[in-house]
């Protein structure tokens, strides 16, 4: 049973940084793509970033490119989302997701989801 547990959310001011963690368990994730998504109130869940666990190759939404960095720690089975230069528009619940795939997927068609972590950016 795959489990994804997010942590690291919180309330910050515009321009601040925050790092989200996603602890993954229950599988060997070498054949997985790990993604971060977010959902703001009244909006659809949207893709933020993804990483292929085996190669470490990454992909970002245009809205976060240059500000957010996704990475993974093989030893800890953990995926991170480093968020810098945060803006009020980044306020959302952030979800970690996992998908068995050889290519990065940017839709919400992932196999497993975490419970979400609230990130609030004040102006």
Characterise this structure.
It is a single chain. With 123 residues, the protein is an all-beta fold. 0% of the residues lie in helices and 52% in strands. It has no helices and eleven strands. Strand 4 and strand 5 (46-52) form a beta hairpin. The N and C termini lie far apart (40 Å). The model has no long low-confidence stretch (mean pLDDT 96).
List the helices and strands and how they pair.
Blueprint lengths: L2 E5 L2 E4 L4 E8 L6 E8 L6 E7 L5 E3 L7 E6 L4 E6 L8 E9 L11 E2 L3 E6 L1
Parallel strand pairs: 2-11
Antiparallel strand pairs: 1-3, 3-8, 4-5, 4-9, 5-6, 7-8, 9-10, 9-11
Any low-confidence stretches, pLDDT <50, length ≥5?
Answer: none
Alpha-beta content class: mainly beta
The major pleated sheet works out as: 7 strands, mixed
- Give the fraction of residues assigned to helices: under 10%
Report the principal-axis shape.
globular
Rg from C-alpha positions? 13 Å
Number of strands: 11
Total DSSP helices: 0
| N-to-C SSE string, H for helix and E for strand | EEEEEEEEEEE
In short:
This protein has about 120 residues and is mainly β. It has no helices and 11 strands.
What key attributes describe this structure?
123 residues, 11 strands
